[in-house]
Amino acid sequence: MKIIRPLTITDGMLTYSNIAEDDYPIYSATASYSIGARVMLVDPDTHKTYASLQDENVNHNPATSPTYWVEEGRTNRWKMFDASITSQASNMDSIVVSVAAKGIANGIALLNIDCASIRVTASDPVEGIVFDRTVNPAATSGINDWYSYFLEPIVRVNDIAFTDLPVYSDLMITVTLTNVGRLVFCGGLVIGHAKAMGITQRGAKISLADYSVKGRDSFGNFNVVERAFSRRVTLPLWLDASAVDQTFNLLARYRATPIVYIGIARFGSTVAYGFYKDLSIDIPYKNYAVCSLEIEGLT
Known about the structure:
By secondary structure, the protein is mainly beta. The chain folds into three domains: 2-17 and 79-196, Jelly Rolls (Sandwich), CATH 2.60.120.260; 22-74, Ribbon (Seminal Fluid Protein  PDC-109 (Domain B)); 199-297, no CATH class. The protein is built from two helices and 21 strands. The protein has helices at residues 146-151, 244-253, and strands at residues 2-6, 14-17, 32-33, 38-43, 46-52, 57-58, 69-74, 89-100, 107-114, 117-124, 128-135, 160-162, 172-196, 199-200, 205-210, 213-216, 222-225, 229-240, 259-262, 271-282, 288-297. Strands 1, 2, 8, 9, 10, 11, 12, 13, 14, 15, 18, 19, 20 and 21 form a 14-stranded antiparallel beta sheet that branches. A three-stranded antiparallel beta sheet has the order 4-5-7, with no helix packed on it. The longest helix has 10 residues, at 244-253. The radius of gyration is 22 Å and the shape is globular.
């Protein structure tokens, strides 16, 4: 298993994005807003959208007036950096972002994406481009015969992680997602310091918690309101005894902070961005220990 400890992306770090920040008009203290009107509040490191809850809404700052405004989330440009994987940034043809990382950033996770091509580059101020990889996200899982290869619809992976960027400080990282002629979506872009935590053993489990509402009327017909879901991953890990204290202390530090967990590299479904619900370490042997980790991803 590997983890990616995310950097907090600030205005100063996001040096380029081809997604225009024009979701709604910028909030004005002198304008009168009717109920349902939407605005953006854009300040340093604040990029949020709000909906008016009242008519004749004048001079009530959305950030401090909850009886007049309801927050709806980040702006389109910043949705890939919020605390939700379901909310996706979108743009026609491509999404291109450049981030000036602070410190070591040798891990990248792309979550809930929909595109036809992925390219990741990393540049050092002195040595130039030190990482350049292009990936076709077409999924190969289940394509095990000629019938499936030719006749099954093309399915693309939703989550992918790169944990082998060279260990440089302050890299300029550029991520390009492309699908010419169509909308491109990105639910999450996590950039941070990757670390191997142990060897995932047999018995890993994946599941999901669905928050959709399913009801049945008096005639037996279902009414379904589709909502978000969260991924759950259970990982048994084999640890060297010398790493027990470090593993416990490091994970304890992130008990209330979402990080990326990569259970098994070849199974994208074991990539989860969220919190662990349960952590236990058994030390049955002199030189080895067994860690059990139950992770619940963000919605």
